[in-house]
Structures are given as C-alpha cells and as structure tokens.
User: What shape does this take?
Amino acid sequence: MRKIEHLGIAVRDLEASNALFEKLLGTPAYKMEEVASEGVRTSFFKSGPNKIELLEATNPDSPIAKYLERKGEGIHHIAFDVEDIHAEMARLKAEGFILLNETPKRGADNKLVAFLHPKSSGGVLVELCQEAPAE
Amino acid sequence: MRKIEHLGIAVRDLEASNALFEKLLGTPAYKMEEVASEGVRTSFFKSGPNKIELLEATNPDSPIAKYLERKGEGIHHIAFDVEDIHAEMARLKAEGFILLNETPKRGADNKLVAFLHPKSSGGVLVELCQEAPAE
Assistant: This one.
C-alpha cells in the first residue's frame, strides 16, 4: 500500500458535483471517463500525490445507484496504490480478507483493480489498484 | 488542498481494529493518541505520503459514538493538508461552504483543524488541517 491512490465519492449528478468539488479543491476535474462495465461515469481531481474520483451511476443496477439508494451521497471507497496487485491480493487473501474479485479487472484511469469486501475490512470498501501495463 | 493528509475511520474497538489494519496495510500503527476534548482515542498508520487514522469513542456523547450508532464502522472523514488554514477557511466560506468551526482548534497529531458540514460538501465530512506552530 504505497499511498492513497484515490478516494471514491458517490454523487447523484456528476456535473453539479464537478462544480462543487472544483470550489472545494480549488482545481477543476482534469478528466472524465465512463466505465460501462461498472455502470459509472467518473471524474478525477488532483490533490498533490492523491486523486478524488467522483462516481455517478449510469443505470439503476450500477453499484453506485444501489449505494446512493441505501446511504446517499458520500465517500464510497478508498483505493490504495500497489506495486504488484496479484501479490497483494494473495497476501490479503492469506490474511483472511474477502476479495470481491478473483482476478484483477480493468477499472477507470488505466488501472488494474480489485476490491475487498467491507465486512472483512472494518466496514471500508477497499480498492487495490496498479497502473495497467501498456497493451 | 496540498494532499490527502489522512482518512479517518470510525471503529468500535481500537485494539482489534489496529490488528486488522496492520494486516491490511502491512505496517503497524506508529502512534496512538487520546483527544479528550473530542471524546476519541486514535491510532495512526502510514501509507506513503498519507495516513490512516482510526477513531474510537471514549464516551457516549463523542461524535464517533453517534456516528457508529447511525452508520456503523466505516470511513468517517477525509482530511486535506492546507498551508494556511485561516486563508482556506475564509476562501471556502466565501464559496458557500458551511464551517463547523469558526476558528481552528487543536486536533490529534499536532494539527490545527477545522471541519466543513457534510451537507455543504456532497455528504462528505471534510477536515482541513495544518501543522500546528510550535508552542
């Protein structure tokens, strides 16, 4: 876990939230990206070595739609930067953490990602992410 | 907002959670500290340039006790490192954010801190923190 790569925040309206977080962070979103497989539209802000990712649902079955329904807007997950996602997944599995993915999948921002179930990690949805190798 | 200074996580049992987060992060807590004025005991972990802060309530009126009752264990707040907390508070107030503190107060880890009300910041409890000057 080399650093907090980003913090993911669930929002209802990406454009309105982009304007709000631009005021908060003092800098505009530097990119927007849709991840169709996850049913999300995202935007990214820089905060020094870290990023803030806003997530809007693009369909009612999106994990973000379900999260908003249950909990409302707010912090959705924390993502840690890892050097070797396969090694880190094996280490955490051996430590008793529950992985939501058996193998890494491709996430936003050119990353290989995997998630830990919050019930094994203190109520916190944890994402591991590693820069994806060039294709 | 120069970086994510730390992420605050509400926990029920600090010792048990220290053991869990040591496994997760691959590194032990490097310090523990009680902030009597806030009714919390805290522990800190490093993740590169960032920290993870675990917060346990020390009395039933603690904001952490109330949070746990309402939402259970999980991510409680995000803290950003700022260079000049007074200037940042004035900037955010002018932008329409609601400050929970009129002036900075002394928090854990030798910081001057102030909070934004989540209802003005997308459901996210935001802390500003600045390294406190030597006394």
